[in-house]
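worker-03 picked up job from queue 'complexes'. Input manifest follows; two sequence lines, order preserved.
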Amino acid sequence: MTDVNRRWFYARKPEGALRVEHFELKTEAVPEPGPGQALVRLRMLSVDPAQRAWMMARTYRPQLMPGDFMPAFAVGEVLRSCTPDLNQGDLVEGDFGWQDWAVVSPRQVLRRHSRPPHPPLEQLVGALSITGLTAFFGLFEVGRPRPGETVVVSAAGGAVGSMALQMARIAGCRVVGIAGGAAKCARLVQELGAHAAVDHRSANFRAELKAACPNGVDVYFDNTAGPILETTLTLMNQRGRVVCCGAVAQYDRGDWGAGVAGVPGVLISRRLRMEGFIVMDFDHQRREAEATITRWVTGGQLKALVHLAQGLEQAPQALVDLLAGANYGKVAVRV
Amino acid sequence: MTDVNRRWFYARKPEGALRVEHFELKTEAVPEPGPGQALVRLRMLSVDPAQRAWMMARTYRPQLMPGDFMPAFAVGEVLRSCTPDLNQGDLVEGDFGWQDWAVVSPRQVLRRHSRPPHPPLEQLVGALSITGLTAFFGLFEVGRPRPGETVVVSAAGGAVGSMALQMARIAGCRVVGIAGGAAKCARLVQELGAHAAVDHRSANFRAELKAACPNGVDVYFDNTAGPILETTLTLMNQRGRVVCCGAVAQYDRGDWGAGVAGVPGVLISRRLRMEGFIVMDFDHQRREAEATITRWVTGGQLKALVHLAQGLEQAPQALVDLLAGANYGKVAVRV
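worker-03 finished. Artifact:
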C-alpha cells in the first residue's frame, strides 16, 4: 500500500532492445474520484509483448510516444466509489497502466468479481482473461484445428503460447511446441503435454521440427514471426492455417523487418490462410469462452503457468525480461 | 494443319528472365491413339504466368525440369476416337501441352462441346475456362467482397485481373485497377469500368493508389506479389482480405524473393486475412460458376479481352511477352 501514486512513463524511444532506462518513474498524489467515478487500487499488472509493439508504430491503438504514461492491462480493487455501478471491494479489470492507483468510470472497466472468494489474481490477468482468451479465440476461431491435425505453437513457453498448446492438446490434436532452450522444451512435454518440443536455437531447427511433425503442419499458431515463421511455413500442409497472433521476435528490432520469404508464393501453391486477429474482436463470445477455460483450469486439464514479479517498481524489468524470453508462463507484476 | 507433331520442350533453366532460347522445338510423328484413347488436334493454347512458376519450384505440380515436354492448358478437337466416351468433333480441354497433336484418355480431358456452334475458342481458354474461373472463385470465395467495398486488383490488364476487376464491378464494389503504363490504365477505366486505375510504375504510386481509395482497401486481389503487394498492404482496412492469386512480379526473378515487409505485423494490427487458392480447389462449383460467367459475357457486362498469337511456333514468345507485361487481356495461341 502506498499513499502516493507512483506512475511509470515511457520516456525514451529504444533504438534496438528495450531497457529499463527507457522508462521514468514519477510520484504524484493519489487521484480523487469525481461524481460517477471510482478509485481503484491496482493489484496485478499483466506484462505483454504487445506493450513493446505499441512503441513501434500505430497498431490497433495509437503509437506510444516518449512522454506518454505507460499503458497496461491490469486488475485492481475498488476502494472508493462515487458511482452506483461500482461497489467497494469489486475486482475490476481494464487498461489501468503502470501505477498504484487509477480513477475510472464504469464503462472503462470490466467488473470481474463482486465478492470473495476471488480466483487467484494472476489468473485474472492470465488464463481467465486476455491471455487465455487470446489463445482460445486465435486457436479455435482463426486456426480451427480438427482432432488429429498437427498444431505447432511458437513461444510455447510464453503466456499465450502455453495456453494455445494445451488447448490444442485438449482438442485432440498432435501438438508441437517451439521454445528457446532445452530446459523450456523439456517442460513443454513434461508439464504441458506437448507431443514434442523443438528448440529454435538448434542448428538443425528445421530438420528437428520436420521430424516432430511427421504428417506436416496443419495449424501454426505464430507468436514470434521472423525466421521461425519462415521455417514453419515450409512445412505446412495444403490448406494449412497460420494464426498471426504476435511477432515477439520483431518487437525489439524496432521495425517489422524485411518480411517473410515464401509469402505469398507458398500461400498460393499450398492454399494457405494467414490471418491476424485481436482478442477484442471476439468480445461478444467472451463469457462463453471464459466459462470453458474456467472449467478446464478447475478440472486440471489446463495449467496456468505464472512468472510473477513483485512490486510496481519491477514493471519495466519484467517487460525487458519477457522480451528477452526469460519467462516461462504468464508474466505478471504484483503491485 | 500438319501431318507431323511439333512439340516444344523446356530445354534450359533461365537464370533470370525467361527467353525463347530456353525452349527447343522437336518434330515427331503424329501419335496413334490406342484402345480407349482419342487423337486430339490442338486448336488453342492458354498462355499463363503459372507456366513460369512451374519452372521455379514445386508448386501444386512437380517442378518442371530441363528436358521436359512443355505443359500447357489447351483446347482441341477430337479427330479420331477409339473410345465410346469421346466422339469425333468433340471440343475438349486439358493439359495437352505445347504441341500439335495429343493422344488422350477420356479421364484426362473435360468435354466442353459436342456439336457446333461452339463459342469462340479463345473464350474456352479464357473467360469460360480457368482464367474466368480463377477470377470468379478467387474474388467471391476467397475475397468475399460486399457491395460498396473497395476492391483493388493488380495486373488488372491481365487475363485474370481484367476478369476479377469487372466481376467486382458487377458485384457493386468500388474497383481500382493497378497496371503498368498510362495506356493500360486508361483502358481499364474506359473499357472495363474501373472507377480508377493506377500506374505502378509511377514515382508516386502509393500516394496515387491512396487517393484512388478514399475509403481504404477492403479486398486486394493480388496477381503480382512483390512491391505492389507490399504497398497495397499499407492501405488495407481492418478485416481486409488479400487474395493471393499470383506472383507474376517474382516468377522471372527465379526465386520467391525476400518476402513482404509488414507480414505478419500488419496482418495482426489490422486483422487481415491473406489466403492462397488454386482454381482446381473449386472444381465442384465449376458448372454453376461457368453458367454465371456465360450469362455475364452474353449479356455484355463482362468483356473477354484476348491477346492472340498465331501459330504453335509463337508459343515461347507469347509466354516471354506475357511475363514482360506486354499483353492486355488473355494471352492465347491459335495452333
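worker-03 released lock.
Chain B has a mean pLDDT of 93.
Chain B touches chain A at residues 53, 57-60, 222, 225, 229-230, 242, 244-247, 250, 256-278, 281 (CB under 8 Å).
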